Amino acid sequence: MTSRPEPPPLPAAPEEGYQRGLGGRQVQMIAIGGAIGVGLFMGAGANIAQAGPSIVLMYAVAGLVIFFIMRALGELLLYRPVSGSFASYAREFLGPFYGYATGWTYWLMWVVTAMAELTAAAIYLHFWWSGIPQWAGALFFLVVLFGVNLISVRVFGEVEFWFSMVKVTAILGMIVIGLGVLTLGFSDAGPTASPDNLWAHGGFFPHGVGSSLLTLQGVMFAYVAVELVGVTAGESADPRRILPRAINTLPWRIVVFYVGSLAVILAVVDWTEFSAGTSPFVHAFEKIGIPLAAGIVNFVVLTAALSSCNSGMYSTGRMLRGLAADRHAPRAFARLNARRAPALGTAVSVAVMGVGVVLNYLVPQQAFGYVTSVATACGIWTWSVILVSHIRYRRAVARGLLPASAFPAPGGTLFSWVALAFLALVTALIAYGTETRVCLYVGALWAAGLGVGWQVLKRRGAHLPDDRRLLPGRVPAPGPGGEGPAGDGTDPAAAPAD
Fold it and tell me: What is the pTM of this model?
């Protein structure tokens, strides 16, 4: 009987040149902030109008799937924590092309997400100054946040910490005030506030289950950014301790910030009063009638938009640097400035984000919807790659080719398969919706561009047959005789899925 070979030791986190300036409180708050953005504060208005009170269930189900994805990512992160982890794992477990495609797609996701956040921020300004053109507000915020990201990762971490602190404190305050209105009946909304509002006006599914399912595209956009904690791995002071804590707090964040806040708001205010283009949180506090409350909430949702855009600038520069290190982008993007930040990659990303300013000038009413649908499609690709990489990693561990992670996902690969099926459903619903289908056309053009770019890289010799050797801690590539790390001709990246 042949004994299973001993797996290699757990690889140490490679030093990538970044400043490990993100402490535990900052990574925790970045993880919390990643779960609270304009997808909730702005996008929920349109989703409520379409699904009614059942939108609470849609956010809960989608949130459960997101937790499955994050636990799969967490297992991979504790196996080998690196910045830009999604592309790295895709390259290791799926092949060089998938690493290249995932890196560029995640970069695109954050670019268009930042466009959405800038659009929302410019709209929120109209609460106080309706005369400011939407494009001018978007441009102003783009320039300010670019300056923040150029200073240092510590400054980014502090700014994001306080942005997220404002969001968290405000939502908790909203829930407490809403519960007070429900139980004590004070304020202008008191006489009509009741849990009955969750089913009294046309039922829990007022437009039918199908209409509620069609909101999943917008709901999933609200969760785009929760995986940002994986990008912080290369700059976390102690990733093996900090990252599991950040991921394990995700369920209560979803329950409190999404399910809890929306359930309270829909109990206080009849769902038929909400509409697209208006924050349900701002409208609810206008209805309650507390002096200055609506203005304060508008400030909070503005902060949420700026927070997410700030995170987008942070991640895009690092994704471009990872692509350059893998010879999948110009080598100039691999350079760090004196503060050990990828300044050139961030600058180029911000320049592309400027397209969002143009959209706000040309089609201000449609800009938000266009970019959120594209961001969701990119997010689905990224999440799918995480799940498939996790499945193949588990297969390699079972064969003794790789060490087990210190943070295994519950249920093994079962929930990764469930999450993949859910993402396939969301993709089908996006294709069905007439307004969301545009992102599939953009996706087809993007895929064609990636294919052309890959062929150019191959002709220039930038493509490596097995580029897992590019980062420290990787399993050695098979030698001329085809022997894998165990000497048995196997290759964990090519192992079939469970």
Answer: 0.80
